[in-house]
Amino acid sequence: MWVIFTSVLTFIKGKADQYPALQSLISTTSLNLKEIEIHWREVLRLATSIKQGTVTASLMLKKLASYPKQNGLAKALREIGRIERTLFMLDWFRDPTLRRRVQAGLNKGEARNALARAVFLHRLGEIRDRKPENQSYRASGLTLLTAAISLWNTVYMERAVDALKRKGGKINEQLLSHLSPLGWEHINLTGDYIWKSNRIPASGKFRRLRPAKVERSKNNLNVQ
């Protein structure tokens, strides 16, 4: 759970040996607060422009990156970024709740990527189209399929939970936050696809839920 960065570094003004406990995690590059002081007005103007929608952050990043040499504003933003990174890492070290929340977010992203790889069988998920529009079509199609599976799972998971509650089952509500709609083990992604109109539920109707094997414990309801 702790290792989510390729390199865990913090930045300080001064030497790392001032903080022996964190010395191995402190960058050898010292913070240059002078750059922030010199270009602070430019930083404020940029932040105001982005907040008001006059310019987008992505456009400004492209412009700053296009300069042959890093200008003063870019250097100031780099130092501010290092400060923000350091503050986040310090919170990360001391707050287990934050670590769990970040890890949960990473797990969701990995689950979505795993679903996308399972769905995208042709060319093993590699987009080899040369034209940008074809790349966009292929990526959009993949997004549509993963979204459809996620929606399907969400709807039927909700119906399953409601059905169990109606039968008097006691469900720990805190456990529901750990459910993910990104599973696909119950979906046939390969083979023949046979569309029979008589098996398609009418508008506003749903497929019948499969009977669940329920094991009741003292505090929770375990469903298999």
UniProtKB/TrEMBL annotation:
InterPro entries: Tn3_Tnp_DDE_dom (IPR002513). It comes from Serratia proteamaculans (strain 568). This is Transposase. The lineage of its organism: Bacteria, Pseudomonadati, Pseudomonadota, Gammaproteobacteria, Enterobacterales. It holds the Pfam family DDE_Tnp_Tn3. One of its GO terms (biological process) is DNA transposition. Residues 15-193 form the Tn3 transposase DDE domain. GO terms for molecular function: transposase activity.
